[in-house]
């Protein structure tokens, strides 16, 4: 961790990674009292453990870090990642915004689809996105956002109790396919309410998807409701549960359904054994 109180003239041109863990420092950033322009080459910013006061990062804060590549926010009362109010679209899409490649969000109970959307739409160069223990989400992103993340290579969603689907689409969004041309790795873990990657009847294309890990998603009956294309995945056995690798069943939807049926069968057998034991007592 790098603890510092910065004077107006102080600069740290060599510093590339910074972790902040104090409420006062975070409050100074969010209130606009503390500028990070003294870190012109910062690539990794890790904000941790400021759950006491609800905060939102100002847009000027992001602008002051033109080389930021990775942002980590953990255990925070943050209602939205970046505050865009009062900015026109052109101001949201400056070159500074396009540097961010990796985003990791964990234990942010106040975040929702509505508050995350503007941020994701402004950071279209994301290569990696990890979301965990964010219990405010019922769905993670809208169709328009999913279509904008054309460079995304890794997506991991874990330990979020209320998520029912990853992508949420309205009727007017169903005309065109949703394509993830670069996504290679997808992990869905410990999502007790997840029913499907998307509950809408639209086409999903994963041109280069090579690994799918599904763990402890007891309500997931299939991967998607509409047409699904995963040409690189069709000959691989990479969908897993807690007991290890599952047998590939010809396509991702069928494999997920087979996993769901197996889980229900095991649960039924366990209930039957329990009933028999109770009858013997």
UniProtKB/TrEMBL annotation:
Entry keyword set:
Plant defense
Can the keyword Plastid be found in this entry's annotation?
no
Q: Where are the bilayer-spanning segments? A: none
Q: Fetch the InterPro entries from UniProt.
A: At4g27190-like_LRR, LRR_dom_sf, Plant_NBS-LRR
Cytoplasm: present as a keyword of the record?
no
Q: Which Pfam families match?
A: LRR_RPS2
Location of the Disease resistance protein At4g27190-like leucine-rich repeats domain: 16-159
* Family annotation (Gene3D superfamilies): Ribonuclease Inhibitor
Q: Which domain of life is it from?
A: Eukaryota
* Matches recorded under PANTHER family: NB-ARC DOMAIN-CONTAINING PROTEIN-RELATED, PUTATIVE-RELATED
Q: What is this protein called?
A: Probable disease resistance protein At1g61310
Q: Which organism is it from?
A: Gossypium hirsutum
This protein's gene is called LOC121203537
């Amino acid at each position: 961790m790098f603890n510092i109180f910065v004077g107006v003239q102080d600069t740290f041109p060599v510093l590339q990674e910074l972790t902040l863990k104090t409420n006062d420092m975070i409050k100074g950033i969010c209130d606009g009292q503390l500028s990070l322009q003294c870190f012109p080459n910062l690539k990794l910013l890790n904000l941790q453990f400021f759950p006491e006061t609800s905060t939102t990062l100002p847009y000027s804060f992001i602008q002051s870090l033109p080389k930021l590549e990775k942002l980590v926010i953990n255990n925070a009362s943050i209602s939205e990642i970046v505050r865009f109010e009062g900015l026109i679209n052109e101001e949201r899409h400056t070159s500074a915004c396009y540097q961010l490649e990796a985003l990791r969000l964990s234990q942010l109970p106040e975040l929702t689809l509505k508050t995350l959307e503007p941020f994701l739409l402004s950071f279209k160069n994301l290569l990696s996105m990890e979301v965990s223990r964010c219990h405010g989400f019922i769905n993670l992103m809208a169709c328009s956002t999913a279509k904008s993340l054309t460079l995304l290579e890794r997506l991991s969603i874990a330990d979020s109790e209320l998520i029912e689907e990853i992508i949420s689409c309205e009727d007017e969004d169903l005309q065109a396919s949703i394509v993830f041309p670069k996504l290679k790795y997808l992990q869905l873990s410990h999502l007790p309410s997840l029913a499907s990657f998307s509950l809408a009847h639209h086409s999903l294309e994963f041109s280069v998807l090579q690994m799918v890990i599904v763990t402890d998603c007891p309500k997931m009956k299939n991967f998607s409701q509409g047409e699904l294309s995963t040409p690189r995945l069709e000959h691989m056995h990479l969908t897993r549960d807690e007991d290890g690798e599952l047998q590939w069943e010809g396509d991702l939807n069928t494999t997920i359904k087979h996993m769901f049926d197996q889980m229900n069968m095991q649960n039924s057998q366990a209930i039957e054994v329990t009933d028999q034991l109770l009858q013997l007592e």
